[in-house]
Amino acid sequence: MKNDDHPLAKATQSHSAEASEKRESKSLLDRRTFLATGSSVLGIAAVHAFFPSATVAASSSPKDPTRTPGSLASSYGTRSVFEQAQRLTSSTRSLTPLQQLSGIITPSALHFERHHNGVPLIAPQRHRLLVHGLVHQPMMFTVEELKRFPAQSRLAFIECSGNSGKEWNGPKGSTVQETHGLTSTSEWTGVALSTVLQEAGIQPEASWVLAEGSDAAALTRSIPLAMVPKDTLLCYAQNGEPLRPEQGYPLRLLIPGWEGNACVKWLRRLKLMANPAMTREETSKYTDLMPDGTARQFTFEMDAKSVITSPSGGQQLEQPGFIEVRGLAWTGRGRITHVDVSTDGGTSWQAAELQQPVLPMCHTRFRLAWHWSGQEAILQSRCEDETGYVQPTLTDLIAVRGFNSYYHNNAIQSWKVNKEGQVHNVQI
Ligand SMILES: Nc1nc2c(c(=O)[nH]1)N[C@H]1C(S)=C(S)[C@@H](COP(=O)(O)O)O[C@H]1N2
Ligand SMILES: [Mo]
Description:
Layout: H1 17-37, H2 41-50, H3 54-60, E1 88-89, E2 93-95, E3 113-114, E4 128-133, E5 139-142, H4 143-148, E6 152-159, H5 176-180, E7 183-192, H6 193-200, E8 208-213, E9 220-224, E10 233-238, E11 241-242, E12 252-254, E13 267-273, H7 280-283, E14 288-289, E15 295-296, E16 305-310, E17 321-330, E18 336-342, E19 350-351, E20 353-354, E21 364-372, E22 377-385, H8 394-401, E23 414-417, E24 423-426
Parallel strand pairs: 4-13
Antiparallel strand pairs: 1-2, 2-3, 4-5, 6-7, 7-10, 8-9, 8-13, 10-11, 10-12, 14-15, 16-17, 17-21, 18-19, 18-22, 20-21, 22-23, 23-24
The site of molybdenum atom has 7 residues, from loops.
């Protein structure tokens, strides 16, 4: 089976330890030369710009920061040089390091990426959105024109329907980034899709809208007008600034709670139609082969799902004692209402605390105080949403969907803590 969302090429670290060691020793040398030649105030800023390595920064950081003036104001901020969280990248996707994040917002620079044929470079002045098909008046908009419409902002997660897909047939990813990193939450700003469609005027026969991207994949999906949420946005901003190129600059569709591929990036065309267009993305891809040989199609809403992000695969517990179990839960059908955590592989469950704010179609942070006795433990989380839907076990999911499925795996994840405190991905 060949599948665009399948191959999670073994994530490669962007640089080997050896290479970065070399760079550091060279940087140290450079820095000594540099310090010998000049030490103006501007020079101090330059040291920071030139030697971003954490080791160098640690060795040059003053013992008492209250006795040395800090670096100067900067025009565009960057994180502390001591912080290293990274997306894990393969050529067509990158994964959010969920285990290294706090709260519910994903920093834009760490939002997961999924693209079928690269990130296009689009000059916003040249970009157009065409609205045509079964409309009273075909229309073309520039991004500036779309920005003049009443603006709306909302937080929402986007999850790729291929997230955790590899986990259908046995535990594969070693970290939560590898098993669940294709989901992120941002604040999105744009104009309501309904506002723009109203402007063009929908003809009575129109019941689907085709959304097309301006990338080399020209990703195209048919969306049923009757199902599409009212708060669907044509977005131009993410976390307060223009969309990142990876997220669809200068314009993307955001359908809150729907599978990522329906949120067409680099959006250039909306065509009103009587029937779905049956594009590649809704026939060959993004369908689920069921045990009876039929294919589930147009499975837009993301089912409730949760995962413990800490302790999670690849982490090491230092010593027995108090540990706060932390994780994320989300659902495409509104709000998360409840999360249970088990530390004994699902034999007993305890209600976790939901951290405010609990917003619809958003990652929701949950926490549970745990005393690790130093014995083997299996950590699981199970969420419920406002429709009463409860996150299934993988066994339950396979009983309904069979072994040929890949997309929409929202099963309960298990992390095994061994006596040494090492945490591993297991299926029980
Ligand atoms: N034009 C276009 N839109 C696209 C894609 C694409 O390849 N081209 N990928 C889709 C898929 S499969 C997903 S999961 C989401 C990912 O959004 P993100 O990269 O902003 O996280 O974008 C969707 N929109
Ligand atoms: Mo996706």
